[in-house]
Amino acid sequence: MTEDRFHLLGMGGSMRIPNRIMPPLMNNHGNYIVSMGNVCRWLARQAEELGVEIFPGMACSALVMEGDRVAGVVAGEMGLVPGEDGRPVPGPAYEPGMELRGKYVLLAEGVRGSLSQQVIARYGLAEGREPQKYGLGMKELWEVRPEMHAPGRVLHTMGWPLGKGAGGGGFVYHLNDRQVYVGFVVHLNYRNPHLYPYMEFQRWKHHPLIREVLEGGRRIAYGARAINEGGWQSLPRLVFPGGALLGCSAGMVNVPRIKGNHNAMLSGIHAAEAAAAAIAAGREGDLLEDYEAAVRNGDIARDLRPVANVKPLWSRYGLLASLGAGGFDMWTQTLFGRSVFGTLRHGKTDAASTEPAARHPKIDYPRPDGVISFDRLTNVAFSGTNHEESQPPHLRLKDPTVPIRVNLPVYDEPAQRYCPAGVYEVVQEAGEPRFRINFQNCVHCKTCDIKDPSQNIVWTVPQGGDGPNYPNM
């Protein structure tokens, strides 16, 4: 990275925030801009050369238990079909999954992992912690005109188009080969259920600062993913009988930097070292307390503690107040190792933050122009998403009546808007509203599992390796 810029956006202009007043931890100079998809593919080759077995094209769908201990996972269950109630049942071509067992099971599923959520609930790992918070990150890969390409330049924006009731911001990363990542994050604790995160992203691209980069270019790919935002105070206990939680399965993202890969890698190193030491010492099966201690007292803690109050300050006081107070707090912790605020609480979950639609005005979003901005379904086609249509939907409702009976009259069914892939619709059939789930569109962002105000939607893994395929993302 060669150049780092921070801008506060208004509707038609912007103000650059001087780098010299930014806390040192916000400095990105000298870092590398890479495609994590390509990095993971490269890492897979290195792992296989070391003898690691990788099982592509299958998902881990269940835990293997031995008493109260997690002993492994089930992977590659195939041939399930929808039963009479829509639940999956074995079909004519059913193949049971493999039980992959290990001395320790390290869960690194990323944000809101389905098995990780089961483990957190089963062992009460989040008890006494603040609720986990999330943002929805949406990203496009563009090829831009040569004169607008500046390899190594990083731009972060805050402010417009989000108003007082919603937080978030955008980024532009210049890669090589005239390629640019443009992305936008919306904090999922917004109150107005009429807010449409995807359209906020599309509107943001029309700001003059962003539009001038994209004009004359072409979109190559699209994707979306939830991001952990709870930080230090939301980290659950990391170890459980038989294993541990790694990276974003626990929530190790540095929120103001919008970065968590470094901590995920460190957590993997710490967990591997702790497991190897326990096995070598004949303590196989013991809780990996050394791993917990390494995270709580090492580099991950030193990265997350100084930014612990950024998210709650933003949630309580809005963007401008939090810029001053959050910046002051980060500087104080950098210089003196402590915060004048202590460790602030988050309070509500993101689902509980959603307020009834009647309390908020509807938001009029401009239609995408098909050049700079695009409709959801067109963009989903650029995500490489595919789900075999005969499989049971991996998006399940605890109570099928809730969307129309509760969410529609109270919240104007926000699933129609918070999903960045157009999975959920309210359609009219015989003059009556019906809730439709287009699971084939799902880009696996997990937003529905997080933001549904009734907590009625459960995200589970689809069969096989189905889902989005992100080249160079």
Automatic annotation (TrEMBL):
Name the SUPFAM superfamilies for this protein: 4Fe-4S ferredoxins, FAD-linked reductases, C-terminal domain, FAD/NAD(P)-binding domain
Q: What are the residue boundaries of the ETF-QO/FixC ubiquinone-binding domain, all occurrences included?
A: 134-227
Q: Which UniProt keywords apply?
A: 4Fe-4S, Electron transport, FAD, Flavoprotein, Iron, Iron-sulfur, Metal-binding, Oxidoreductase, Transport, Ubiquinone
User: Recorded E.C. number(s)?
Assistant: 1.5.5.1
Q: Which chemical reaction does it catalyze?
A: a ubiquinone + reduced [electron-transfer flavoprotein] = a ubiquinol + oxidized [electron-transfer flavoprotein] + H(+)
Q: Which cofactor does it need?
A: [4Fe-4S] cluster; FAD
| Function per UniProt | Accepts electrons from ETF and reduces ubiquinone.
* The protein's name in its UniProt record: Electron transfer flavoprotein-ubiquinone oxidoreductase
| High-level lineage | Bacteria, Pseudomonadati, Pseudomonadota, Alphaproteobacteria, Rhodobacterales
